[in-house]
Amino acid sequence: MTTWTSDELDHIAGADELQMAPLRRNGILRRPVPIWVVRDGDDLYVRSFRGTDGGWWRAARASHMGHIRSGGVARDVTFVEVPDTEINDRIDTAYHTKYGRFGGSYVNPMVAARTTTLKLVPR
Q1: Which InterPro entries match (predicted)?
Q2: Half-sphere exposure (CA, 13 Å, Cβ side) for 105?
Q3: Beta bridge partners of 39
Q4: Is residue 1 part of a domain?
Q5: I need a labelling partner for 62 at 20 to 30 A (CA). Which of 3, 48, 50, 83 fits?
Q6: 82-118 residue pLDDT tens
Q7: Beta carbons of 91 and 40 less than 8 angstroms apart
C-alpha cells in the first residue's frame, strides 16, 4: 500500500480546500468539487458537508476510487470508509481547529457528518 510523503501531507493539510473527483460507476471521473480536508497523524480525512446526500460522497462511497488535488499535490486515491469510532473524535477536533474561523454554521455540519468520514489513501 502506498503512503503519503511528509511533503504531501504538509501541503494538503496546509491548504484550505481539496479538489475531489470521485470515479463514477462508468469509470469516468466526476467533475472536481472543493471540499475541506483534515489531517490526523499520517492520514487525511474528508467528510460531506451535505451528509449522505452529497453527490461526490455517494460516488466516492460507491467506487472507492478517485483523484484529488490540493496544495500543489495531485494523486489518485482510494476512499476508505471510517466507522464511527474514537478516530472521529480526533477528526471532529481537527475540523474545529482548522476551520473554526469560518464559524459554526460551516463547521458544525462537518462535525455532525461523522457517518460520511472517508480516509484518503494514495494509490
Answers
A1: Split_barrel_FMN-bd (IPR012349), UCP028498 (IPR016888)
A2: 0
A3: 44
A4: no
A5: 3
A6: 987 889 999 999 999 999 999 888 999 999 999 999 9
A7: yes
